[in-house]
Amino acid sequence: MTERSLTDMAGLAARHRAEKRFRWYGIIAITISLGFLAVMVVSIGSRGIGAFSQTRIALSIHFDEAIVDPLGKRNTAELSRSNTNALIRASLNELFGQVQLPSERRALYALVSIGGAYELQAALEKRPNLVGQTKTMWLTASDDVDIFVKKGINPALDPALRRLKPNQISWLESLQQQGQLQRKFNTSFFTNGDSREPEMAGFLGALVGSALSLLVCFAISFPIGVLSAVYLQEYAKKGRLSRIIEVNINNLAAVPSIVFGLLGLFIFINILHLPRSTPLVGGLVLALMTLPTIIIASRAALRAVPPSIREAAIGLGASKTQTTFHHVVPLAMPGMLTGTIIGMAQALGETAPLLMIGMVAFVVDIPTGILETATSLPVQIFLWADSPERAFVERTAAAIMVLLSFLVVMNLAAVLLRRRLERRW
Amino acid sequence: MKKPKKKSDVVENVMTVRNVDVFYGSNHAVKDVSLDIRKNQITALIGPSGCGKSTLLRCLNRMNDNIEICKITGEVKYDGQDIYDKNVDVVALRARIGMVFQKPNPFPKSIYDNVAYGPRIHRLAENKQQLDDIVENSLKKAGLFAEVADRLADPGTGLSGGQQQRLCIARAIAVEPEVILMDEPCSALDPIATAVIEELMEDMRLNYSIVIVTHSMQQAARISQRTAFFHMGELVEQGATSKIFTLPKDERTKSYITGRIG
Ligand SMILES: Nc1ncnc2c1ncn2[C@@H]1O[C@H](COP(=O)(O)OP(=O)(O)O)[C@@H](O)[C@H]1O
Ligand SMILES: [Mg+2]
Predict the structure, then answer these.
(1) Does residue B201 or residue A237 have the better pLDDT?
(2) Three-state DSSP state, A129
(3) Percent of chain A at pLDDT above 90?
């Protein structure tokens, strides 16, 4: 071996070993965290997947004119309020003619969700010429039927404690044999607001509520956050005051969100008398919460703009404001937007501050404006998770899937936006 | 027989610096400096690193205003006006006294927009055609037009280092300054790009007065008519470049140009 070998050196083997070891640590750490993620996605997915299908019962419905339109006016408004329940009962009575006892009849009627009547009303409203005809309609089954079809019956459970009585089960089995009981894609889960009946509950109301709140949050926090950051970073004299402000902003970012909820309740509702439970107030509270995040991220983005760009502009005779808004802010924009979207993604998942300002209300209608009562996705998840009906379990998981998808879409948007803005040069 | 003085021979100062001191906090970076900047000449500021050349240069168009800890006393006059007078608008001042920096710093915009930015903010063009002309002329004066004529819309940051520096010169020229300050404009460039820029400066001298900071004595000797030698914040010696390099009066200047300090 020569004095200056290129292949062997003191400590070389140990160094190679150390590097290999370190790579392994990294791989193990990533595997563990991906493993947790996979477990979460699989467990939520397997639990929530059921909510995307819904059991329906096919009934031959005679749209009796005497019941739904006794005056024969075919007025859609009145048709949409007609007594379609009676139609369903008539159809069930015909199908199971042997059932006579009133209590048994009630059990029979309970197989179909009360949503079935709404579905018929909606069908009549859309097509008034149905009156007088007889048609097979797939009506939403009640949540107990839905669970029976999806999970079967638990043989270990005492029959007296079962949600479905033996006679109900036998009726269902006969329906199943006739092919009149089927799982179908659950459109109403995507198009409905909340409901006391799990089989009729959908997440659209909560989704729209969340989207509207985020819109308000963005409209308020983005301009204010960016302007504050620009002022603090580019204009403010670096002194004791600016240091105090900086420390306080960092502190604000760590304040528990419920405190912002209380602040919002006090300022927006008690003092300003804005309507409670609305996306307007929700968005304002979320904006309070998101502001520190946006300011911190925006300041970091501004700091990252090379000073040579500022000098170039100033050397050409650009004023401070021209330099800032023509050169510095556009260059910092991708970073600012990323920070904003991260802040908004946090806001999307917030529940506590929204509970404080009353966005926990039970809201059936899909909100169409920021001044209407609304709820939000995480609050909806909280409400469903808190409901006793078993059918809400899968809806809770499904709503979590929707929330996570919303988050993924937002983060993807952040990445794409950033790429687009950065790729310009 | 005495030759009658031609107009261009008349010694005319475009800027005068009198008893200027600059402090960064407690660091006395420039000490009691008095200097004349001649019209249509190249004045070179030389001296070892950290002796205050850049600091003094930046005083000439008040670039130090933005550094909070920087304090300046003394008098700097441009065209007979005190540029530190509180009524002077720095924006107007910097439009008359442009600057080119050590590291080429084009904006991350197109070549066209880089040059057009100054004229736009100073409203030098009334329409698109005029602006196009200004951009073209400035690029021509900076000796860059032939190289970029067919790709004015490409990003300025995509040019080579030497081209970027000439783009920065074109950008400075576009606002029609009278004085151009250059802080080691060639230190980040290779010898060929440096030669191109030195040649360019020789042409520019006809229209502008140039102050250049350089750490290269050869460069100062090649291109400048006047040289000022700085040492530890003091202006040791100033005069015609030929004199300074052949007959330095001060011992420190002698040591520096013969390579003993620096
Ligand atoms: N922005 C600044 N803040 C504080 N001190 C500075 C700053 N710029 C320069 N100095 C100090 O001023 C002195 C002169 O620097 P400079 O003018 O850059 O020297 P040169 O350009 O001759 O190398 C040095 O001591 C340097 O540390
Ligand atoms: Mg320097």
Answers:
(1) B201
(2) helix
(3) 59
A359 pLDDT above the threshold of 50: yes
Taking the mean position of all CA atoms in its chain, how far away is CA A293?
22
Task: Confirm or reject: Cβ of B22 under 6 Å from ligand 1.
Answer: no
Q: Domain residues of chain A, as ranges? A: 3-49, 53-192, 204-421
- Contact call for A315 and B172, based on CB within 8 A: yes
Strands (DSSP E) along A71-133, which ranges?
none
- The model's pTM: 0.83
Of B61, B63, B108, the CB nearest to A331: B108
Q: What is the dihedral angle through the alpha carbons of A342, A345, A349, A350, rounded to the nearest 10 degrees?
A: 60
List average pLDDT for each run of 10 residues in chain B, which is 262 residues long: 48 91 95 94 94 94 89 93 92 93 93 96 93 95 92 93 94 94 91 90 92 92 94 94 91 85 54
Rounded distance, CA B183 to CA B55, Å? 10
> What is the CATH code of the structural domain delimited by B12-105+177-257?
3.40.50.300
CA–CA distance, B187 with A206 (Å, rounded to integer): 62
What is the b/e burial string over B83-98, where b = at least 16 CB atoms within 10 angstroms of the residue's CB?
A: bbeeeeebbebbbbbb
| A311 shares contact with chain B (CB less than 8 Å) | yes
Contact between chains at A312 and B175 (C-beta distance less than 8 A): no
ipTM of the complex: 0.88
In the reported structure, the alpha carbon of residue B49 is separated from the centroid of ligand 2 by a whole-number distance in angstroms of 7
Per the listing, tokens 């006739």 go with A178
Distance from CA of A195 to the nearest CA of B (A): 55
Is-contact B233 B47, C-beta < 8 A?
no
Ligand 1 pocket residue status of B71, Cβ below 6 Å: no
Second-level CATH architecture of A204-421: Orthogonal Bundle (1.10)
Q: What is the pLDDT of residues A362-419, one digit of tens each?
A: 888 889 999 998 999 999 999 999 988 888 999 999 999 999 999 999 889 888 888 8
Do A326 and B117 make contact, defined as CB atoms within 8 angstroms? yes
**Shortest-distance Cα residue to atom 18 of ligand 1:** B54
Could B61 and A237 be called an inter-chain contact, meaning their C-beta atoms sit closer than 8 Å?
A: no
Cβ-contact B226, B44 below 8 angstroms? yes
Q: Do residues A193 and A205 lie in contact, with contact meaning Cβ atoms separated by under 8 Å?
A: yes
Element (H, E) at A341: helix A329-348
Out of B98, B105, B155, closest to residue A311 by CB: B105
